[in-house]
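The data layer described in this paper is built around a simple, fixed record for each protein. Because each token names a local backbone shape, the row as a whole describes the fold. We quote a single record here, exactly as it is kept in our systems:

***
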Amino acid sequence: MDWWTGVVTEFERCFIREDRYKLLLSGIGVTIKVSLVAVLLGVIIGFFIAVCNLSKKKPLKFFGGVYTDVIRGTPAVTQLMIIYFVVFATIKWSKWLITAIAFGINSGAYVSEIIRAGILSIDKGQTEAGRSLGLNARQTMTRIVLPQAIKNIFPALCNEFIVLIKETAIVGYVGLVDIQKAGDFIKSATYSAFMPLIATAIIYYVLIKILNLGLKKIEAALRKSEAR
């Protein structure tokens, strides 16, 4: 049982002593907060960019294409530092909010492609049927095309949310203490790598597992309503 005693001792030294577990609890809150705001912003931006990419107007199509190309073609950590240290350098907003905006902008490019693909997956006959019923283009899109597209793209949006949560592990670059950064602080204070790293990995896994279960229930409900 010596190994078990060693594990308990190491756990106590890393997390209980000096209330270091509070760092992780605070980090969990930061990660959840940043991820939720970022995913909401990402969906809003993504929908707007998808509309631009599908538009027949050249300026909108050009803007949407450039945005998607630049965001998808540069590292997320570089975008985060540009937005934090350059774009918002003189604006006194909370670190977590600026970080959430950066991740929302990044996510928007990927969400836009998901939404665009979902809209294009709907048979053109659906649009024609809407127009034949006297609906204009906006009404056809919001009442007929989008409800069907949402069901098709929901799994991909869920995956994007999960990826986003894991990507927030880089927020330490701008001095924000999330789960990963909290683990790094504990590692530096205790000179022990194993326990803090395993703890952060387990926390991320549990968070994503809970999210996955919740999203699967929502997806099942959407499929059930579609069957009706």
